[in-house]
Amino acid sequence: MSTQQGIYAVGSENRPPMLNKDNYVLWSSRLLHYAKSKPNGKLIYNSIMNGPYVRRMIPELVKQMKFNDQAIQIILMGLPEDIYADVDSCGTA
User: Which is nearest to 37 in space by CA: 84, 79, 74?
Assistant: First the structure.
């Protein structure tokens, strides 16, 4: 693995780690740490661990939907192109 590939796999402040198909457990741990490090990381982490907030008509909870979107974006940014293409073509994943 080149130095650039190593940096890409570990992630950075601006992008989450890329999924390592051979070591999902390590990748998922890094992804969760990355999510927690973002602004409002606790809410993003909650969306990843507990699934997206189901919309109700309570205004203060609608804000959680923003964090659900951020959680999904973090996960998708950490997927290799071939896996992203498979996930993107599904209604649910």
Answer: 74
The burial of 83, by beta-carbon neighbours within 10 Å (0-12 exposed, 13-18 middle, 19 or more buried), is given as middle
Residue 59 CA, chain-centre distance (Å), reads 25
Burial of 38 (0-12, 13-18, 19+ CB in 10 A): middle
Q: pLDDT tens for residues 9-66?
A: 556 677 888 887 888 888 888 889 999 999 889 989 988 898 876 666 666 666 777 8
Q: How far is CA 35 from the centre of its chain?
A: 7
Residues 50 and 90: their CA atoms lie apart, in Å, by 20
Q: Show me where the domains of the chain are located.
A: 3-88
Q: Distance (Å, rounded) from C-alpha 5 to C-alpha 7?
A: 5
Structure tokens given for 43: 């809410």
- Tell me what the mean pLDDT of segment 63-77 comes to: 84
